[in-house]
Inverse folding.
């Protein structure tokens, strides 16, 4: 009789694990607490499903920071090139944008998810929704379901339970209590999140405006990318790219004119101002658009003059009140620590149980890195399960 494998969590990591194991001949039950599968996956695809990033593998792995050393073998086995091939294998053509980000040609997540679920059904995967995992009772895995309490005793279990952001989509971190006695856990922290700024009233007219042509400075990191002024603060791709640095204590500043040296700015500002207001003088002398000018006035007042003002344009300190709440973050850091896992992602203190996806202690910037690592770890754990129980 074929091996029975239980996979808990039907996000990208869990779906990939189910795909690999069912293709290998295992009898797979995929349990999901929500009424449908892939909810966060579908939400990510609403603005264009960023599958991966087309760049050399060493650069790709480096984007994961210190955790990249743990993920390297998994990403080497299933990295950007393999993700593209996987999507094509599900009938979804892909394209690479100017930034190197890879998307399905249709941009949406739903056609890919439908094709994927069709393949899983053809491979015999049993999908159970509204099954909320509670914990273990001896060797049995316990669920609360619409039909009441259910106990299963699989040959192997893969946990793919997500992180702790977007709880309404299923990633609520509730699994922490059940795993606390079986693995060292790093506290969850927000990743790829916006930062709170208590704006003055004049900034209201800038809400929703993108900030272009600047460079964000967070400690030693400098990032040139767009971000957005919102009623809640600063958010968007540029801010997400420095969010880890800010979370870990780096100060935030903005270079409003990264292509101009300070002496050129000072020379322009030294031109006669006449009767022009300081704001008009800055706009005409430097070509500052209304958004950058508003930021300078918001964070730089009272504005100095001369070389000091030029220095402020090049390094404008941003005063913020910390990150947005964890449930609003795109992803999370923290989770099951690597020293509690075997190289195959099996829990050392709970043999027969593997972990995959965002519940592992890693984080990555946006840009396809998040999804690729979820797929890669789900595949890696499934292959280790197959080696362990399907000899």
């Amino acid at each position: 009789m074929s091996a029975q494998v239980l996979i808990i969590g039907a996000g990208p990591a869990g779906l990939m694990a189910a795909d690999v194991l069912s293709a290998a001949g295992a009898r797979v039950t995929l349990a999901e607490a929500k009424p449908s599968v892939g909810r966060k996956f579908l939400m990510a695809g609403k603005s264009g499903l960023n599958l991966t990033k087309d760049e050399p593998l060493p650069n790709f792995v480096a984007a994961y920071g210190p955790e990249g050393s743990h993920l390297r073998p998994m990403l080497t086995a299933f990295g950007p090139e393999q993700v593209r091939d996987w999507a094509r294998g599900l009938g979804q053509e892909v394209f690479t944008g100017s930034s190197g980000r890879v998307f399905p040609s249709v941009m949406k997540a739903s056609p890919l998810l439908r094709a994927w679920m069709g393949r899983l059904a053809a491979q015999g995967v049993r999908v159970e929704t509204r099954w909320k995992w509670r914990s273990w009772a001896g060797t049995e895995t316990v669920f609360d379901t619409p039909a009441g309490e259910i106990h299963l005793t699989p040959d192997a279990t893969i946990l793919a339970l997500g992180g702790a952001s977007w709880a309404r989509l299923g990633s609520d971190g509730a699994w922490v209590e059940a795993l606390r006695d079986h693995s060292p856990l790093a506290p969850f922290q927000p990743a790829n999140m916006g930062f709170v700024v208590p704006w003055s009233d004049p900034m209201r007219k800038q809400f929703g405006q993108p900030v272009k042509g600047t460079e964000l400075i967070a400690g030693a990191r400098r990032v040139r990318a767009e971000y957005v002024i919102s009623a809640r603060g600063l958010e968007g791709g540029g801010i997400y790219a420095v969010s880890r640095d800010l979370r870990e204590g780096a100060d935030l500043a903005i270079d409003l004119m990264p292509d101009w040296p300070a002496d050129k700015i000072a020379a322009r500002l030294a031109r006669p101002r006449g009767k022009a207001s300081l704001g008009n003088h800055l706009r005409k002398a430097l070509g500052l658009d209304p958004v950058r000018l508003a930021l300078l006035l918001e964070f730089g007042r009272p504005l100095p003059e001369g070389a000091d003002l030029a220095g402020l344009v090049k390094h404008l300190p941003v005063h913020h009140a910390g990150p947005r709440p964890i449930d609003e973050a795109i992803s999370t850091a923290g989770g099951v620590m690597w020293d509690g896992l075997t190289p195959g992602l099996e829990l050392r203190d709970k043999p027969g149980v593997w972990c995959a996806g965002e519940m592992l202690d890693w984080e990555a910037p946006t840009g396809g890195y998040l999804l690729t690592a979820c797929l890669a770890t789900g595949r890696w754990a499934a292959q280790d399960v197959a080696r362990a129980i399907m000899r």
User: Anything to note?
Assistant: The mean pLDDT is 95. The longest strand covers residues 185-191. The longest helix spans residues 369-389.
